[in-house]
Amino acid sequence: MENMIEFKNVGFIYEKHEGEDTVAVENVSFSVAEGEFIGIIGHNGSGKSTLSKLINAILFPTTGDVMVAGINTKDHDRVWDIRQTAGMVFQNPDNQLVATMVEEEVAFGPENLGIPPEEIRRRVDEALSTVEMGEYINKKPHQLSGGQKQRIAIAGILAMKPKCIILDEPTAMLDPSGRKEVMDTIKRLNKEEKITILHITHYMDEVVDADRILVMDGGKIAMEGTPREILSQVEKLKDLRLDVPQITELAFNLKSLNIPLGSHILTVDEMVKELCQ
Amino acid sequence: MSIEIKELSHIYSEGSPFESRALDKISGVIEKGSFTGLIGHTGSGKSTFIQHLNVLLKPTSGQIIIDGVDINDKDVNPKSVREKVGLVFQYPEHQLFEETVEKDVAYGPGNLGLDENEIADRVKNALELVGLDYEKVKDKSPFELSGGQMRRVAIAGVLAMKPRILILDEPTAGLDPRGRDDILKVIKSLHENERITVILVSHSMEDIAKFVDKIMVMYRGKIEIYDVPEKVFSQAELLEKIGLAVPQVTYLMRELKKIDPKVNQNVYTVDQAQEEIVKMIRRKDNA
């Protein structure tokens, strides 16, 4: 399988106007294979968002190289190829919707790519149906709920036929049902459309199903592994200012009371099974 | 300082084609010194409701009575209500604007016409209440601080007004788990030590479960449930139907009850769940 994203010894320094510079990312190396679902967690200021902007060629590495589908992000002539390959969805739906109609919103990306109108028409319909928002095609974005707005933002990216989508805390502003809508959509895109997903979040329960989790701290990758490997390290995560889902914390507490439980319980079902053996 | 809501309705753009009923004859009493969680999906009327509590919106009909005074009475100055009722909006750090942290926090009390010493005292006190080191942060630009710190400065700005009722609209959105816990602890200690009445709007059922003593659930402009957490979270099906959820451990206990009917399923924190499971295992061992 080809690497969708590759970081080779990447460093990034924000230059301040006065005083010293801030190192946001330091000597980070990792790769993401095509079709993977990667969860990225880390406290505020740990470098998660900088990482995502480096992939999307919004920022360029101070040292090292970032490759997206084999293209170096420093190759300025190919910035648009990169952004078409790796689309981004941000936290606040209201800051990323630009058009007055859902239909125009989704068409905005492909229009800028100079795609013929009939092809745009087809892509808009397809993208909206993929995020299950087809019936909202003639609505105004401001009439939609937060979860629906985020799904429109995702549809706008899908219409550019990306191979990879990076989501930077897409559920932070949503209510529980909105969060579920967006998470179901992202998971479906990964499974059915084989789109590579990088999901940045503070909600640990959203990365339980990921293929791999990267934990960022101080601009570096502090931990890397499967959800089971990562989320079972309750104390280490707490040291990194993070949290674990209630079930994982409960399993950890019960084990410390010498209650025999299989390790690495992540879901309600697994806990029920373990307790009722 | 109790809040009494009587048949409160709010209709946006009344009489126009865009008319929408955001609050539909809601009634209830929020007791003095209580800590209330306000939940409901986006568009359920939560924001419209809390904006009524400090007269940013006026009722289409109905009344809000705070400490025996109808806050919309024509003889009541809205400014005096806003002194008593502090409202922290979503992403309050977007409203920071001054050159230094000290000036930003002083802005509100400055508008109350207090003397300089009183303002200085209040600023210092408010910054300490939110857990910031006054000497360290006072001369900094608010924009140099981390997201969690900026938010605490913004909350300090409201606290410097010395409100008796504090309403916070999703104060932890976008913060990492530690930042979230820090803010919630600050709020909890304000409630306990300063005896401030708190209304917390949140989408996190786990946070709500951990901190509040009563939960108000809004749905389509009405109060659907208003009760203690135990009673509210025992209605999982209803909560899900209206776009909400119960804490993860509550789902677990419901499953366990199917296996051991003695399990108490009205559990919503990790500690309570742990206790129940230990009891369940003892029963199993004794059987």
Provide mean pLDDT of chain B, rounded.
Answer: 92
DSSP helical segment count of chain B: 12
**Gap between N and C termini of chain A, in Å?**
40 Å
Listing every helix as H and every strand as E from the N terminus to the C terminus, the arrangement of chain B reads EEEHEEHEHHHHEHEHEEHHHH
Main sheet of chain A, how many strands, which sense, barrel? Answer: 6 strands, mixed
CATH top level of the largest domain in chain B is Alpha Beta
Q: In terms of topology, how is this protein built?
A:
The complex is a heterodimer of chains A (277) and B (287).
Chain A: E1 3-14, E2 22-33, E3 37-42, H1 48-55, E4 63-68, E5 71-72, H2 79-85, E6 86-89, H3 93-96, H4 102-112, H5 117-130, H6 146-158, E7 164-168, H7 176-192, E8 196-200, E9 212-217, E10 220-225, H8 227-231, H9 234-239, H10 246-256, H11 268-275
Parallel strand pairs in A: 3-8, 3-9, 6-7, 7-8
Antiparallel strand pairs in A: 1-2, 1-4, 4-5, 9-10
Helix pairs in contact in A: 4-5, 4-6, 5-6, 6-7
Chain B: E1 3-12, E2 20-30, E3 35-39, H1 46-53, E4 61-66, E5 69-70, H2 78-84, E6 85-88, H3 101-111, H4 116-129, H5 134-137, H6 147-159, E7 165-169, H7 177-193, E8 197-201, H8 205-211, E9 214-219, E10 222-227, H9 229-233, H10 236-241, H11 248-259, H12 270-286
Parallel strand pairs in B: 3-8, 3-9, 6-7, 7-8
Antiparallel strand pairs in B: 1-2, 1-4, 4-5, 9-10
